[in-house]
Amino acid sequence: MPYLVSAVYIxxxxxxxxxxxxxxxxxxxxxNIYGTRRRPRVFKLFLERSAKMSEVLVEKKGAVYTVIIxxxxxxNCVNRKTADQLADAFRAFDSDPNYSVAVLCGAGRAFCAGAxxxxxxxxxxxxxxxxxxxxxxxxxxxxxPSRMHLSKxxxxxxxxxxxxxxxxxxxxxxxxxxxxxxxxxxFCRRFGVPLIDGGTQRLPRLIGMSRAMDLILTGRPxxxxxxxxxxxxxxxxxxxxxxxxxxxxAEIIAAFPQKCMRSDRQSVYEGFNMNFAEAxxxxxxxxxxxVISSGETVRGASEFTSGIGRHGKF
Length: 314
Fold this sequence. Notes:
Layout: E1 3-5, E2 8-10, H1 18-27, H2 40-53, E3 56-61, E4 64-69, H3 80-95, E5 101-106, H4 117-120, E6 154-158, E7 161-163, H5 165-172, E8 175-179, E9 183-185, H6 199-207, H7 209-218, E10 222-223, H8 224-230, E11 235-237, H9 242-254, H10 258-271, H11 276-291, H12 296-305
Parallel strand pairs: 4-5, 5-6, 6-8, 7-9, 8-11
Antiparallel strand pairs: 1-2, 3-4, 9-10
Helix pairs in contact: 5-6, 6-7, 10-11
């Protein structure tokens, strides 16, 4: 029977129980693996398999679901395998009622430096490691989840470089928490790699046409101060704290009444390309049919009358 460890299925090995795999996932100390553990062979096996298979990790705490791109040796560049695992992780998040907000981050000192160009050299090989190039917009994007429309919010925790396709992944997220020395940029400009994971559409919607054109045409780096000023970043935090701060923000959002929060979020996305009258109509429809009719609003009003939530305290 396979066991799910860090969003990757690994098969049962000789003498390895489910309890041991869970222990390995949560307690393993690589420095002590060969001499001090009770069953060092088991730990060695786990680390070897994880190193080969786990290009995307998932960690869960409360209602927060953290997805980690785990290729730090190449600044978390994404090939086909990584993209597939990213998409699978977010599908699992969206379908699981136990989790309300996701955080996307990169292992090590980078968020994501885009597509793995060494794999992209073989992009025309349908069985190769290059990212998928499917014209069917119902299929996964080259970077994985970039075409997905989730029902729940995702927060990007940006450390180091979020460039090229990595920037497109950050744009796919609802919010971006950026470390003060992190960098955005369309760095793929210099290599003739186009933005095909939503970058040309999401960037102008976030920061306006003129600013988006500047970044897209020049491929120049954007530091945290500028990103915050133009609306590309929502928060700027100390170096090394992006994931922690993003998860704190996720916990705050997860504590709110979820039907209402998700309905308002969807109204923003769906109304963006409607005329004002149509957008107002769909906003009311969602608010009434999904939220008010569910009783969530009445419950919230009752809590307010009892003193809960007044003066910004929940």
